[in-house]
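Tutorial, part two.
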Amino acid sequence: MVRATGRYQNQRVDLDQPIGLADGTSVEVQIRPIADTDHAERMLWGQIGMDRLEEEWDNPADAVYDDWKELAAPRSCLDPI
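Running the prediction step on this input gives:
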């Protein structure tokens, strides 16, 4: 299932973001109008979540294994004897 938002205009729905479906794919559509305030709040919470994820991801204290390639055993150690 793919959730998407868009705008209804002239008897068609234009999506805000492209989705990974081939042209001509049959789909079932459920229309649920959203108020602009609902959409703005959803976008705000999405941005807050992304900011928090990036903050965690870039946390130097959690970067113990950032140099995992340097810590890996040389290839010759992994070869069968």
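The two ends are 49 Å apart (CA to CA). In part three we will examine how such features are distributed along the chain.
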